[in-house]
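FORM 12-B: Structure-to-Sequence Request
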């Protein structure tokens, strides 16, 4: 029992607030890449590697912490992650050697694994019919922490920063965000409760076995939604870490506040619009609305599929906008890419807990962890030295997304979707859920 009596709404607030800050500290490096590049002598390609490295630990970390949240409860795991992230953020503020700095920032970047912890925590408190909206609020407002970092940090820690401990703005930003992270860790540990009832907590804990995890990991639903998350959330991660650099380098915009503000429009769309997608997914499932002439009866799947298609279209549009040479065109299309990411992500994580009600942490960990691979790969496309310019990488990424859309189209067929939580690519004799995977 925490210090105060927790309700589902208080749990949602605690998880969302903590994840929002996790996202802020995760991408706190993005507004300051120019200063770091100058101090450590980094090229544009090396900045792309730094942006990519922010995601390296996320796949394994999310998979592990999703399972640990099922096993030991979200409050304990969330608090541990926030605590060590804060400590290493503080250490990175004092780093004088680039190797030390690089390693400590990789550890700080594991703040992103908190996503699946909160997904599991929220799922343990909310009913199935409201999961899309609740998870959408959590994920959307939480993801907007990247926008908060882009908008707030360069304004607080500006170019002329001269504080009591640091004369370098990015070092001060890393130090003080680390302090806040440690304080949040203490808050989460003291206030959080793992589930709405002991019965629910025990049901989830009982599923947290290695055999159960392997079974869950190989179900059609898990695999396809994880692949879809690569091209939605993985893309969001990549854009969060790259766009400020892109607007600065590709359009010769030297003002870090302006470049970061333009980049924040993407993060705002990707974050704050996500709850609407979750709400629409809930609505079309509850009212049994068919949005497409295909995948009939699979209402949540239809909504997710439309979002995936929109991502591909807008990514090609990003290249065209960049080639036009008009900065504001690229900013507007970037906002639309963020909207598409929010659409797909909200749909995906409306499906996850509804499909796997007693293994939400494990599935969220798998989907969220594998999905972050896009955040590792896409920045390498965006900054690839073999491309003629910085605009073409978006289209290269879009082409790689087409096979994922086709895989989703196969999975979302009614006869496949209805058994997506029990049938899998590897045959096992364990039942994951008694709830049909489809909407009907």
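FORM 12-B RESPONSE
SEQUENCE OUT:
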């Amino acid at each position: 029992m925490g210090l105060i009596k927790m309700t589902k709404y208080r749990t949602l607030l605690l998880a969302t607030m903590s994840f929002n800050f996790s996202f802020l500290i995760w991408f706190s490096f993005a507004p300051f890449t120019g200063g770091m590049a100058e101090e450590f002598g980094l090229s544009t390609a090396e900045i792309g590697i730094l942006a990519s490295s922010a995601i390296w630990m996320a796949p394994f970390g999310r998979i592990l912490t999703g399972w640990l949240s099922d096993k030991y409860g979200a409050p304990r795991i969330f608090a541990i992650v926030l605590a060590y992230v804060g400590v290493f953020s503080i250490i990175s503020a004092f780093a004088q050697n680039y190797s030390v700095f690089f390693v400590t920032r990789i550890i700080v970047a594991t703040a992103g694994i908190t996503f699946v912890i909160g997904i599991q925590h929220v799922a343990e408190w909310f009913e199935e019919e409201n999961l899309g909206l609740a998870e959408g609020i959590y994920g959307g407002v939480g993801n907007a922490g990247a926008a908060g970092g882009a908008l707030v940090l360069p304004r607080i820690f500006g170019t002329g920063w001269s504080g009591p401990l640091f004369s370098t703005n990015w070092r001060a930003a890393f130090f003080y965000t680390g302090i806040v992270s440690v304080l949040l860790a203490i808050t989460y540990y003291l206030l959080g409760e793992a589930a709405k009832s002991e019965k629910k907590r025990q049901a989830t804990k009982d599923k947290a076995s290695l055999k159960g995890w392997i079974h869950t990991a190989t179900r059609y639903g898990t695999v396809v939604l994880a692949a879809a998350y690569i091209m939605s959330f993985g893309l969001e991660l990549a854009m969060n870490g790259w766009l400020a650099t892109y607007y600065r380098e590709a359009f010769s915009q030297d003002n870090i506040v302006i470049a970061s503000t333009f980049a924040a429009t993407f993060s705002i769309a990707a974050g704050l619009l996500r709850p609407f997608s979750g709400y629409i997914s809930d609505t079309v499932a509850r009212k049994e609305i068919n949005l497409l002439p295909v995948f009939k009866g699979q209402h949540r799947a239809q909504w997710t599929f439309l979002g995936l298609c929109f991502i591909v279209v807008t990514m090609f549009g990003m290249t065209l906008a960049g080639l036009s040479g008009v900065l504001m065109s690229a900013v507007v299309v970037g906002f639309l890419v963020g909207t598409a990411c929010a659409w797909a992500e909200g749909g995906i994580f409306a499906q996850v807990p509804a499909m796997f009600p007693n293994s939400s942490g494990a599935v969220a960990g798998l989907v969220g962890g594998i999905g972050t691979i896009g955040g590792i790969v896409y920045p390498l496309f965006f900054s690839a030295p073999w491309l003629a310019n910085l605009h073409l990488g978006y289209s290269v990424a879009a082409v790689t997304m087409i096979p994922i859309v086709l895989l989703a189209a196969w999975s979302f067929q009614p006869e496949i979707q209805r058994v997506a939580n029990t049938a899998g690519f590897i045959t096992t004799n364990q039942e994951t859920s008694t709830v049909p995977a489809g909407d009907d």
